[in-house]
Specification:
The chain has 130 residues and is mainly α. The protein has one domain (2-22, 37-122). Helix content is 66%, strand content 0%. The chain has 4 helices and no strands. It is elongated. The two termini are 28 Å apart.
Length: 130
């Protein structure tokens, strides 16, 4: 039970952190490397994918690593879509399809890496035979 509360709390806190950070105009980070912002999106959503997997793995209704992966990936993708929509209302920010693509790639890597690493052990309860 403690693991579930911690996992869901970390996921909620991280989502709140992303939301708050995207509520401000883009910070001036000095000289920018080409694609630097996309790498930041990729890394942030990879972490979100891992945290979503950890939280969703506490739900007994998820059977198998693939179902866990899909649940976490779709969650992160919908959150990324909502964040891009949210940014369209923030002065100095804009919604960007390339950012959403970087978010999706990060979620894919994070959730996929988690499920690859932990496999069927990522999900408590019964799993499908391999």
């Amino acid at each position: 039970m403690r693991h579930a509360v911690l996992s869901w709390s970390l996921l909620a806190a991280y989502c709140l952190l992303i939301f708050i950070q995207s509520s401000f105009p883009s910070p001036d980070m000095g000289p920018e490397l080409p694609g630097q912002d996309k790498l930041i999106h990729l890394a942030a959503y990879a972490v979100l994918g891992v945290l979503a997997c950890r939280a969703f793995a506490t739900l007994p209704c998820l059977n198998g690593a693939f179902v866990l992966f899909m649940a976490a990936f779709i969650f992160a993708l919908v959150f990324g879509l909502s964040d891009e929509w949210h940014q369209s209302f923030v002065p100095g920010r804009m919604a960007d399809g390339w950012d959403l693509l970087a978010d999706a790639a990060g979620a894919l890597l994070g959730a996929g890496g988690y499920c690859w690493r932990y496999g069927a052990r990522a999900v408590p309860g019964p799993t499908f035979p391999r």
